[in-house]
Amino acid sequence: MDSLERIIQVNWRHRVLFTEDVFNPSNPVLSEVLETGSGTAHKTMVVVEQALVSARPGLTEEIRAYFEACGARLKLVCQPFVVRGGEQAKNSWSNISALHEAIDRYHLDRHSYLIAVGGGALLDVAGLASATAHRGLRHVRVPTTTLSQCDSGVGVKNGVNAFGKKNFIGTFAPPFAVINDCQWFRTLSERDKRAGYSEAVKVACIRDRNFFEVIERDAALLNQFNAEAMRRAIRRSAELHVAHIADSGDPFEFGTARPLDFGHWAAHKLEQLSSFRLRHGEAVAVGIALDVVYSRRMGYLESSEAARILELLSSLGFELYAPELTLRDRAQQWRLSEGWEEFREHLGGRLTLTMLRAIGTGFETHEIDEAKVKESIVELQERHAGLVNKGLAVVGA
Ligand SMILES: NC(=O)c1ccc[n+]([C@@H]2O[C@H](COP(=O)([O-])OP(=O)(O)OC[C@H]3O[C@@H](n4cnc5c(N)ncnc54)[C@H](O)[C@@H]3O)[C@@H](O)[C@H]2O)c1
Ligand SMILES: [Zn+2]
């Protein structure tokens, strides 16, 4: 047999920059990222999500003024392109087509920049459009929610939902740079400010006990959306996510594991079963709670450790039960179990789930005990009912 085989190595630089007021003309962070020292001004298009423009009507003008102040060094090819964000933006292909069409119309090329400003959903859409047009433009992310600054925006994945499945169509494409700016939170709803905390708790649970304790100490401040406490949580969460991407040896998830997706097998399904009534971060809080109770019931995790995690999530304002956990279809099939089946399918047929041995120590398991999952759900339901009776549950979150 004749064959050719070589190992192809590609190195990526993955940068997350922390700044404030990214589009203030006196802030050089973005212009320095875009100036590559080649002497040529690369074409740039900015995509902003509608919610930001509605909350801050002068925003597109601020962006335009920023580029104008940079003079000939930067070249904005058109007015900031405003698209709808939120999960609905991921549920259709039309946003991707609209972005491809604009990339074509303004003749963006492989050396051009597509800067996306928005929440995790918009970044997933813009990331996919920029990864696929011309097989990849330079993509700069400016995440504007706590969740996207803690987790999704600083990662290397993009995607849209299809066939009733989250992120069915997507790619791994490290962004050219990510710019985290906490000034965006000024217009973010309390619900969306809170939503990102669950990803910080998640990564603390599986990777960093010390960080978990910092979040515990800061819980009251985080509940009041104290800027310093939010900055601390986001900074460390982003750092742990980036460290995983750089150091795990499997940034593009070729293996059978999705180690950072603790609590996510249930979370992704809950988002979909709730028709996206639950935000990703809210569903993640329920998913973590379920896997924590399950880990304890399986004998992996001490009761005191499990109680601390549930307590922390509750004190951050999360509900740890959702009626969709017990949903059945017409044939009486339990819908949530599709969550682990989809994980299995997604990763080549071998089920790999992350569970907890202790706060700060996750581990992988390849089986799931359905009866124990059901018992865990009943326990969460009873805990929730107890809190409601005491008037302590978060209502209408
Ligand atoms: N690619 C990844 O690796 C990855 C990882 C985790 C999560 N995700 C995805 O991220 C998405 C969730 O992201 P999210 O929590 O940021 O939610 P989101 O993008 O849906 O944003 C939440 C809401 O806030 C609005 N919004 C965004 N920024 C705002 C601001 N500064 N002021 C006012 N309103 C603002 C949005 O329009 C939306 O209504 C999910 O689709 C999830 O699947 C992706
Ligand atoms: Zn997540």
Keywords:
13% strand, 397 residues, alpha/beta, single chain
Output the structural class.
alpha/beta
Query: pLDDT average, as an integer?
Result: 93
H/E topology pattern: EHEHHEEHEHEHEEEHHHHHHHHEEH
Helix content: 40-55%
Describe the structure.
- With 397 residues, the chain is α/β, with parallel strands linked by helices.
- It contains 15 helices and 11 strands.
- Strands 1, 2, 3, 4, 5, 6 and 9 form a 7-stranded parallel sheet that branches.
- A hairpin with a 2-residue loop joins β10 (353-358) and β11.
- α8 runs antiparallel to α9 (209-223), α8 crosses α10 and α12 (280-297) runs antiparallel to α13.
- It is globular, with a radius of gyration of 21 Å.
- It starts with 15 loop residues before the first strand and ends in an 8-residue tail after the last helix.
- The structure holds nicotinamide-adenine-dinucleotide and zinc ion.
- Zinc ion binds next to α12.
- Nicotinamide-adenine-dinucleotide (NAD) is lined by residues 49, 51-52, 55, 85-87, 90, 118-122, 124, 144-145, 147-148, 151-152, 155, 157-158, 166, 184, 187-188, 192, 195, 279-281.
